[in-house]
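ugh ok so i messed up the first submission bc i forgot one of the chains. this is the corrected input, ALL of the components this time, i swear. 846 residues overall. if the numbers dont match what u have on ur side tell me asap before i send this to the collaborators (the ones from the other lab, u know who)
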Amino acid sequence: MHAKAPRQADVEGYSRRPSTLEWLNRYGTALFLVLMCLFFLAQNPHFFSLRNIANILADVSIYGVIAVGMTFVIITGGVDLAVGATLALASICAAWAVSLSGWALGPDWLVALAVSVLVGTCVGLIHGKITTWLGVPAFITTLGGMTVWRGATLLVNDGGPVSDFSEGLRWWGTGSLLRLPVPVVVFALVALAGLVVQRYTRFGRQVYAVGGNPEAARLSGVDVKRIETAVYVIIGSLSGLAGFLLMARLNSAEAVGGTGYELRVIASVVIGGASLAGGVGGIGGTLLGALLIGVLSNGLVMMGVNAYYQQIVIGVIIVLAVAFDTYAKKRIG
Amino acid sequence: MEDQLLLAAEGVSKSFPGVRALADARLHVRVGEVHALLGENGAGKSTLLKILAGAQRAEEGDIRFAGIALDPSDTPLARQQLGIVTIYQEFNLLPEMTVAENMYLGREPRRFGLIDWPRLSADAQAILADLDLSLDPRAKVRTLTVAEQQMVEIARAMTFQARLIIMDEPTATLSEREVQVLHRLVAELRERGVSIIYVTHRLTEVVAVCDRFTVLRDGRFVAEDLVADHTVADMVRLMVGREVEFSRRAESSASDEIVLRLDGISRARSARSPHATVLHRMSLEVHSGEILGFAGLVGAGRTELARIVFGADRCDEGVLWLGGGELRPLRSPAEAMRRGIALVPEDRKQQGCFLDQSVRQNMVLPSLPALSRWKYFVDERAEKKLVERYRIALAIRMPSQMTPMGKLSGGNQQKVLLARCMALHPRVLIVDEPTRGIDIGAKAEVHKVLSDMAASGVAVIAISSELPEVMAISDRIAVFREGRIVGVVAGTGADEQTLMRFMALGEAGPRSG
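and heres the new structure output, hopefully the right one now
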């Protein structure tokens, strides 16, 4: 019945009540998130304890920061598989710099933050340049990056963890600000900045244009290569920031840090409604997607579900979300 | 035997939303003849070919092949197995596979359920040898020239024991010498009793290789006769003869001021794009307030020149002057736009629109620098106002500014793209096939917009494959043929038959300003 909705009416500007399917397609993720929370609450009343909520949010924040960057990358039609490795390299370098310099260059947290973001930015710049200059597909560039940076991480400090940071540094991972965990505040600021850039800046518009139709974007005067490079720089620096938050939270920087983050991050963006073909997506959706994955993993743990089953459930939900989206788009047209 | 009908299509009709592509079309092809199917762009040739190939379904009509009525629900494969094989302009070959694999794709000889490679090779070799083609069956198609790929298509047709081969513009991208080879092959096929439907714009070829011809005009059957009984001029008259459907511009606003001057723009064949049209020393002047039409066949170099002017492609030689200043290295469309050149590209969907994104985003994208605040931010109020202004000025029908572009009709999409260019306040506006695929009412509106632009002092270049359109809107018409500008004709003095001859043969017509 939806398929037979009068298409001409759309074009002519008659208003039409959105069909159930359209409504579900738009608000389905949010609805699913609410239902899931209710389900977990029914299973375990501690699910909604302040402590647990803070826990979920802090976990989500770390990969959520990267997901904001990934939203830009995926909207251009690209992908970054190396975010976990970038995160690990950035945090190990930062921890190493702190252990060498101590307070000689200023507050240790500032040194760690600066080094972490700088390393991430450089990695992103390398990915962006290889993709645009050499024309290597981003999938391949970052697939290579994934092992290269992980390997480089193992070289720093011979693969061992660097641990035990100062109080001031750990505050960034475990402290609280305005009664919220610090990582959550950082994530909120990053997401807000992402939202503003995406909706209200020329750059944001150009990102959509590049992903929607690169040839049309070029003929509209968009410097496609510059935009593509920029999104990898953004995701690189945000991966560095996430690395800093993670090491502060764990009080340790490890070579295996951030393993598997790429999948979580990409899943957040895709569940949030972005298309891997580019041109479609948004920070708002990504936030929901990231939250959904965070709640799901936490809720399953609280229910005492075996960790292996968790992986299966998360995988199934990702595929179902995209399958529904594809189905709905086909029916709505 | 000679006069036996192989294909008899009668009363074929087909409509698309807003367009009647075929109305009571007729095509009779005899056994062992080369039959030319003639008509202008939009006459319905392609639609008829697709119906014959089984790619589209006619609404009405009766098609008999070798005396048996064809099932309208046939798939292209079913038609091929009957012996009707179509060779499209864009070949259907897989570049990474070999010649032999392509010839037998999906029908490879098998042994014990596995592909019998030696036999595949031998069968392919036999057919190639039979047609006197010196192609290596093991060569990858990617390594072949366009002409060789076409031969693979013909050889593939023969693996179906084709009785009717349909060739759609087979020589559009071939060199003179390659055309000769193709014509020999066509004659060879005819000798064997294979019938060929030959679609081309080049009427000299019709005289050279075809026995009979059928003319379509506006989707209707016009004439069928022996080629030998007619001159090229006769055929042109049959193709064109229709009432003018566009009203001519009321008055010209052309001035003497030269806005854009091209001097000796050339581009040689390059290894990177071996099939692109070679451009030979193209020179032109465009005046403020005039509409300069570009007429020519597909592949004559009109779009190629426009893209060079706009900075989308590079040229090897030549100078471009804009308002007196030399512009030679235009590196990008962005630079062209900053200097006051705007382009509405040829392929609306592929090169123009962001179909999933809002009408607003589509219209304002290149104007964002002028609509920004604090350098990086978009001034949304200014943006809304701009879109609203052009919505009213061009009567664009859209539910809201946030409606996805893909939901608009073709005519409204085209108006949005025109508005995109107008918002840049260009000195030179180039429109490439501005009314392709849009309905007649929208066409008139687009023409009005172009006239108004010219009246405001913009130099407008209009590329169109519809001659009546070019004639109706242009002050002057530059005629392109095979990478050369063969002449510039005054718009008022031009008549369709002269232009058509000029485009097809390059022979001298009335020359002026």
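quick check: The two ends of chain A are 13 Å apart (CA to CA). that seems consistent at least. Chain A has one domain: 47-332.
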